[in-house]
Specification:
heterodimer; A: 366 residues; mainly alpha; MetI-like fold; 15 helices; B: alpha/beta; 4-stranded antiparallel beta sheet
């Protein structure tokens, strides 16, 4: 009998590649598909070409005023002329270096995270982002210390206000949400009860109601003379609201960790806090990165609701200028600009979360 | 055969028991251990004394309570009645005692339970650094020494997800050994492995048995029991039915239930 010889490894077949191959596989693989492709392409063309034409071909980007624009094209001059208001709101014009410095510090914390950096740098940037940045930003923006002229929060506005609301909301909601999630899974009934009540209360109320109550009803209960800053009230409301959502996202991750992980950590003699910090949370948070990103993105967009309590965030700032009679019919340009700004930030967060997921992947599905 | 009446001595107080075990060779003392899952009586008045360096194999049909029993020995499960002393420390609700026991008792699980987000080496360093407060450099040296002992030092920087089942289980053994425990518990360490990987894990365990480690092993590997066990314990229905050295246990089982079990597993 012949001794079995293992078969040699053969190279894989050379695949047909290139754009034409791709088109044939994906768009023209059958008669029906070809027809659908042609119709879709036609529909896209009749919708997109006029929009492109309006926005870019006939659109005017730079100019002196409404008279620079063409009646049949987009009037981006409007955005260009009002950009300072859109970014800073009514922040005193002579003090704009302060928000500018804050923007720069924010960029230092955020932008490098999109580039491949050693883990140690990343860690220090993150620590800077949650400690130094908010404190420095507060002193710079509000003033009143170190010889800086105080600027009342009612004058903050535009993109600046949107970023303040979102950033504070995000970095405050995460730790509170984490604590609530751990509390909800605690074996101690009192702690669990408090956490469940908190989460269920805040999740069951629309954010708009919370903001409204914070701005209209809270002053009724406070002794006269005691006033909370309106921005502060909005921040607290948004943070607690998002913390409840965050808690449920994190709880999903905690529950996805197999019991064996808890047991192995226990058997090694690790106490509760070390088990959580070293074993459970690193895995649970990794699992829920998409959920956290989702919550954070929706928080970012929900900040526009502060409009109803009289704070002028980016959307509010743009909206308030639309009624200017000097500018005729610039609504589309204004809202498109707002949409574009939100898209840039939200897409950035989405990319960042994908990046983080890939980076933390150790190839194990337990 | 062991029944609660065998140990008829009155239940001693905790302190008295610590004294009574001091100086004796028994590192594990289990007296009248009972446990219920709801209404279901899983462990019925178990009694067991294990001497230092003794190697014990626990076998029995599934559902007989053998896993629950060894999980009670490091308080992964809580027994509701009776006493357990591990190296003189009473296992009770006292968190300090539980932590003290867990420092001295290593455990290997059926499904390995390695930490997937940490490299093999980090898995081995975690407990020595955080629980024993060993300096990192020293912990690395110890860890590499044990990884060599389980014949896997070249995988130290990989993640558990990149290893085969047999390799993962050997890492899990090394991880437990890095705490330099006095007792090792094995809860069906080879049951989740492909047949060709069972041997590599058993070889490591045989080596460990040769080094004088106190071992309690729940397993169906009767070959392993014959070669290394000092005593084989057969459990059924939450009770210890028979307890004997391997030669007697396999060649001359006393209880009909044991004979039946052995016939079933040895027939093929």
């Amino acid at each position: 009998m012949a001794v079995h010889q293992p078969s040699p490894d053969l190279p894989p077949p050379v695949a047909e590649r290139g754009a034409i191959r791709w088109l044939r596989d994906n768009l023209f693989s059958s008669w029906l598909n070809s027809i659908v492709t042609v119709i879709t392409a036609y529909l896209l063309a009749i919708f997109l070409i006029p929009i492109f034409d309006w926005a870019f071909v006939k659109g005017v980007f730079l100019g002196e005023g409404p008279e620079s624009c063409r009646p049949d094209g987009a009037c981006w001059v409007f955005v260009q002329q009002r950009i300072t208001f859109f970014i800073y709101g009514n922040y005193p014009r002579e003090l704009l270096w302060r928000p500018d410095l804050v923007f720069l510090m924010f960029a230092i914390a955020v932008v490098p995270q999109f580039f491949p950096l050693p883990a140690r740098w990343r860690k220090w940037l993150a620590i800077y982002g949650i400690t130094v940045l908010p404190v420095a930003a507060y002193f710079l923006l509000a003033g009143g210390h170190f010889g800086l002229e105080p600027v009342r929060t009612t004058r903050w506005g535009g993109l600046l206000l949107t970023l303040v609301l979102a950033y504070v909301g995000i970095i405050a909601a995460l730790p509170i949400g984490l604590a609530l999630a751990l509390g909800r899974r605690s074996h101690m009934p009192v702690i669990r009860g408090i956490c469940v009540t908190f989460i269920e209360f805040w999740r069951a109320v629309p954010l708009i109601t919370i903001l409204f109550m914070a701005s209209v009803m809270l002053p009724l209960f406070l002794p006269s003379g005691v006033t909370f800053d309106r921005l502060m009230r909005a921040l607290v409301g948004i943070t607690l609201f998002q913390a409840a959502y965050m808690a449920e996202v994190v709880r999903g991750g905690l529950q996805a960790i197999p019991k064996g992980q808890y047991e192995a950590a226990e058997a090694l003699g690790l106490g509760y806090w070390r088990r959580m910090r070293l074993i459970i949370l690193p895995q649970a948070l990794k699992i829920v990165i998409p959920g956290i990103a989702n919550t954070v993105i929706s928080l970012f967009k929900d900040t526009t609701l502060v409009l109803i309590i009289g704070l002028f965030d980016l959307l509010g700032a743009v909206k308030s200028t639309l009624s200017d009679p000097a500018w005729d019919n610039v609504m589309a340009e204004g809202y498109l600009f707002v949409a574009f700004c939100f898209w840039v930030f939200c897409f950035g967060m989405s990319r960042y979360s994908h990046r983080l997921e890939k980076q933390l992947d150790t190839g194990h599905r337990n | 055969m062991s029944t609660p009446q065998d140990n008829a001595s009155p239940a001693p107080t905790q302190d008295a028991a610590v004294e009574s075990t001091a100086g004796s060779d028994d590192v594990i003392i289990v007296r009248d251990m009972n446990k219920w899952f709801g209404d279901f009586h899983v462990l019925k008045s178990l009694n067991l004394n294990v001497k230092r360096g003794e190697r014990i194999v626990i076998c029995g049909p599934s559902g007989s309570g053998k896993s629950t029993f060894i999980r009670c020995l490091n308080r992964l499960e809580v027994h509701q009645r009776g006493e357990v002393y591990i190296d003189g420390v009473a296992l009770n609700d006292d968190v300090k005692n539980i932590e003290a026991v867990r420092r001295e008792v290593g455990m290997v699980f059926q499904h390995f339970n390695l930490f997937p987000h940490l490299s093999v080496l980090e898995n081995c360093l975690l407990a020595p650094i955080w629980v024993r407060k060993t300096p990192r450099q020293e912990a690395i040296e110890t860890a590499m020494q044990y990884l060599e002992r389980v014949r896997i030092p070249e995988q130290a920087d990989k993640y558990p997800g990149q290893l085969s089942g047999g390799q993962q289980q050997r890492v899990a053994i090394a991880r437990a050994l890095c705490m330099q425990p006095k007792i090792m518990l094995f809860d069906e360490p080879t049951s989740a492995l492909d047949p060709e990987m069972i041997k590599e894990v058993l070889d490591v365990m045989v080596g460990l048995a040769g080094s004088g480690m106190t071992m309690l092993c729940v397993t169906h590997e009767m070959g392993f029991a014959k070669t290394v066990a000092d005593r084989v314990i057969f459990m059924d229905g939450g009770e210890i039915v028979e307890e004997a050295p391997p030669q007697d246990f396999f060649n001359n089982p006393q209880q009909p239930r044991t004979q039946e079990f052995l016939q079933q597993i040895l027939q093929h």
